[in-house]
Amino acid sequence: MAWEDRRGVYNFNPGPAALPEEVLRRAQEELPSYGGGGLSVLEMSHRSKAYDEIQARAELGLRRLLGIPDSHRVLFLQGGASLQFAMVPLNFIPEGGAAGYVVTGSWAEKAYQEADKVGCRAVVAASTKEEGYRRIPSWTEVQADAAWAYVHITTNNTIVGSQWQDLRHSLSIPLVADMSSDICSRPVRVEDFHLIYAGAQKNIGPAGVTVVIVREDWLAQAEEIAKARKLPTMLRYAVHAKNDSRYNTPPVFAVYLVALVAEWTLEQGGLTAMEARNREKAALVYGAIDESDGFYQGVIDPPSRSWMNATFRIADAEVKKRFLEEAKEQGFIGLNGHRSVGGIRVSMYNAVPVEACAKLRTFMDDFRRRYR
């Protein structure tokens, strides 16, 4: 498909998700020969000076965007957030210890369950499962034990469409966050977290690389626990840190795209500008829902709504089917709800332009008028 033919196609896929057009164009231009060196990023060695530069650019871009302090390391790993569900407890919960999990959606629940599967004691610190995950609990509802190794949260729940709006906390124990679907969508105080992990394929790159931001002083503790557990080498954070994320071959091209996306985000004005843009996009879509007089039925309580994933339902199954068909005909791609819950989901990650959400709003208003 030629570039001009992409116009009028709006990517609302939940992940892998939209990438900035400027990033795709630059990657296309540099693909045959990175930096004029005669090799594509796809074929260069991860031990080369060219890749040294790429990984350094990716890390620097993330540090500048998120304000990552020197107290934290940045790692580029593989296995997605799903592998982190096991690595975090295995590295940080000592034998006989426990950790708390705030269960706010399907992925938060999977993180909790995985800790138990690998033989670690996981405790529910708070949960809204009985309410259908319609809201995010307040920090006062999180029952944290001072003896726990950490408390784990999932900052954005892509399937149901909820998000932690307030990440300020007063926990006296380490906080771990899965930020896979809203990292770099707004400013965050990284120093308030002992560990952050995120699959790149929503806001910061393509599928294939997982960014881990972890406190340096926590790594030493993790290595002692890993040794006691006799963990396989590839499951040890300290090993990846010692080897600069290159104990094994890293996903070179994915890290390269993280560098490009980070630089693009900085050019847009950084995370303060990105937050304003994401609020604008969310307001357009939620406005169509809230002003529909019940035709579109929102899933999440308004104070807990996600800026990244807006979810709603249409009561009549045939009308919903027609909505998705007509939306696709109009160029709106990826609006089906997750297979586990159905409905409709609009994923509005950083690279989705305001224009796309404005056009979707117009379509939603017109569709409602025709099918009420």
From TrEMBL:
It comes from the Bacteria. Pathway: Amino-acid biosynthesis; L-serine biosynthesis; L-serine from 3-phospho-D-glycerate: step 2/3. It catalyses: O-phospho-L-serine + 2-oxoglutarate = 3-phosphooxypyruvate + L-glutamate; 4-(phosphooxy)-L-threonine + 2-oxoglutarate = (R)-3-hydroxy-2-oxo-4-phosphooxybutanoate + L-glutamate. It is an enzyme of class 2 (transferase). L-glutamate binds at R47. Transmembrane segments: none annotated. Its main location: cytoplasm. It is found in: Cytoplasm. GO terms for molecular function: O-phospho-L-serine:2-oxoglutarate aminotransferase activity; pyridoxal phosphate binding. Its EC number is 2.6.1.52. One of its GO terms (biological process) is L-serine biosynthetic process. Residues 9-355 form the Aminotransferase class V domain. NCBIfam families: PRK05355.1 (NF003764), serC_1 (TIGR01364). Homodimer. Belongs to the class-V pyridoxal-phosphate-dependent aminotransferase family. SerC subfamily. This is Phosphoserine aminotransferase. The lineage of its organism: Bacteria, Bacillati, Bacillota, Bacilli, Bacillales.
